[in-house]
Write a structure and sequence with these properties.
By secondary structure, the chain is of the alpha/beta class. The protein is built from 19 helices and 13 strands. The chain has a six-stranded mixed sheet, sandwiched between helices. A five-stranded mixed sheet has the order 7-13-12-9-10, with no helix packed on it.
Length: about 400
């Protein structure tokens, strides 16, 4: 690609690129010297699994990797012990080293579904933070003022509302900034909620004598499948990257036509010009959404599984048939069974309350019959079978012994 084509590809879906014009200068310098840029994104291992909202940032790393640059996936096992105050109205609970290490191990497997492991630096910021002495931390703390840190929106709101701010939280942006010093970063990527931390890192680099501090690039926070709120496991509007191909494809097909273009922009490698062409093509939105679903499933599974998931979806919803492979569970027939409790216990809903909501919304069927009473219960006989359907995609066959 030409430099201008690289700019278009690398900034696709981005929000901020600061300082303006700096990315082109850095790309031109890299091209003329043959020295690849060092591009970092950091992730604190505060939860064991990633969803595709997290992969917006990982995919941007992949784009830089495709252009020949060095990408650094930084696992914040040290910053994770502090807890990122971004977007928080209260102090995060501190995790143990054991919890952080266990979560970090799952990250290693998940990120290489998109990144090339041979071309990725996988680092942990405990490498350089843990050996620092107390006097080193004092010197680091001297690189910013309390007034600067209190400009952070979260801190300002909490201070005005008299919500406690722990001293260790003030250290977070300073430690993240020191990461960029230790890794000699040319570019740091982050979500829009990370803008304060990323800008602080530029200042910390300057304070440590870096002549050409990093460019910062932010990516948007992806809306969940509801199209309204940020993708979140707690809100149930997420697509997990470890979910089955059929579940993943089905969730993509459930999004709105407008949200589809947002997902094309942020969750695929399709060039901006091609996306514009698809928008003007006049194709059926359902077909375009199916292609989006296949692309997303291919990234996290395989082309064969993507096609199988697409075909299964067509078979189920165009022909209104049940899937060919339905999980089977055997349970004891030892008295009355509350339907909502069964749904929650078998993982078809995250909680009894959510199961009650699904029943009330007419989203639950037993043997093909819709159940509308959240208090519905039944007394199965030994040797009987029941087909349970929750929503459009979740099926379970229950054998009672």
């Amino acid at each position: 690609m030409t430099i201008d084509e690289q700019l278009s590809y690398l900034t696709k879906g981005s929000v901020d690129c600061i300082p303006a014009g700096d990315l082109k200068r850095k790309l031109e310098r890299s091209a003329s010297t043959g020295v690849p840029m060092r591009v970092k994104a950091g992730f604190d291992p505060t939860a064991p699994d990633l969803h595709i909202g997290h992969t917006v940032l990982i995919r941007k790393m992949r784009h830089f990797q495709q252009m020949g640059h060095t990408v650094i996936f930084l696992i914040g096992d040290f910053t994770g012990m502090i807890g990122d105050p971004s977007g928080r109205s209260a102090t995060r609970p501190q995790l143990t080293r054991e919890q952080l290490n266990a979560n970090a191990e799952t990250f290693k497997v998940q990120i290489f579904k998109l990144l090339d492991p041979e071309k990725t630096e996988l680092r942990f910021n405990s490498e350089w933070m843990s050996p620092l002495k107390s006097e080193d931390f004092i010197r680091l703390a001297a690189k910013a003022t309390v007034a600067q840190l209190m400009e952070r929106d979260e801190f300002k709101k909490r201070f005005e509302a008299q919500v406690p701010i722990s001293v260790h939280e003030l250290l977070y942006p300073l430690v993240q900034g020191y990461d960029s010093v230790a890794l000699k970063c040319d570019i740091e990527l982050g979500g829009t909620d990370q803008k304060f931390n990323l800008l602080m890192a530029r200042q910390i680099q300057k304070e440590y004598g870096v002549a050409d501090p990093q460019l910062i690039m932010t990516t948007p926070l992806l809306e969940g499948t509801d199209g309204a709120q940020k993708m979140s496991k707690s809100l149930g509007n997420y697509i997990g990257i470890t979910e089955s191909p059929k579940e993943m494809f089905g969730k993509v097909m459930s999004i709105s036509d407008d949200l589809m273009w947002r997902y094309y922009e942020l969750l695929t490698d399709v060039a901006p010009a091609k996306i514009a062409e698809l928008k003007e093509s006049g194709q059926n939105p359902r077909d375009l959404k199916a292609e989006l679903g296949r692309q997303i499933v291919r990234d996290f599974h395989s082309p064969e599984e993507a096609l199988e998931a697409s075909d299964e979806f067509d078979r189920m919803f165009r022909e209104r048939q049940t899937p060919t492979e339905i999980p089977v569970v055997q349970l004891a027939a030892d008295g009355p069974v509350k339907l909502v409790k069964l749904i929650a216990q078998q993982g078809l809903a995250p909680s009894v309350a959510e199961a009650q909501r699904l029943v009330a919304q007419n989203s639950v069927r037993v043997d093909g019959e819709r159940i509308a009473d959240p208090k519905y219960e039944f007394s199965p006989e030994p040797g009987t079978e029941m087909l349970l359907q929750v929503g459009k995609r979740k099926y379970l066959r229950v054998w009672f012994q």
